[in-house]
């Protein structure tokens, strides 16, 4: 396992240490991989570590070559895995529930808002359909969904989905927006339209957040995540090109519009 020593918060008797095991890059096996759930829970816990209710330790695991101690402890389980005081939580819904009910401060992140929950539901499935089908109808379905999110943000006039402070829904949406932006552009030349200014303003705030930038995978890892999905069963395509391993990681965080004009 690769311990990136990404710690935030304090280490004293009053603050519990939470360890989050996440998938490593499928390119170099060390840096952060492009697992959406890993980033979502990383962001949840990072926000709590910033408030100093916990101390956070993040460990990356190369699932193509998992180390013996990982196999011994977790067998074939894939990250994310949360470890709290020796207790390992292995399933996504259980991790979410544990953060909400058992991690100090976690209940503050999990606000109740059915409108927002419905608003961001199935966004990721529309991206996957667009990447597989590669036709205009799928592009339009994703675009219509993004427009609804844009309209919601414009109507509320807040920095984040439910107000001016982040919640669990933001930690879910933000990684998905980055995948849409990076993978959509690479595979089907899809771009989030500039006229969705409320959405771009939201993404501007997203790129200012340490919780997002510290947890965000490189563009190359997001792209390779979908290359591997598309190449399942094709051994030739699964072989990593040497230049990809040597490439300097890049992170798309630019805003293509001047927000002062809108």
From TrEMBL:
Pfam assignment, any one? CLIC-like_N
Q: Which CDD domains match?
A: GST_C_CLIC (cd03198), GST_N_CLIC (cd03061)
| Principal subcellular localization | membrane
Any one Gene Ontology MF annotation carried by this entry is: chloride channel activity
CLIC N-terminal domain mapped to chain residues: 16-99
The record's GO CC annotations read: apical plasma membrane; cytoplasm
Q: Where in the cell is it found?
A: Membrane
Sorted alphabetically, which keywords does the UniProt record give? Answer: Membrane, Transmembrane, Transmembrane helix
The superkingdom of the source organism is Eukaryota
- What is the protein's given name? CLIC N-terminal domain-containing protein
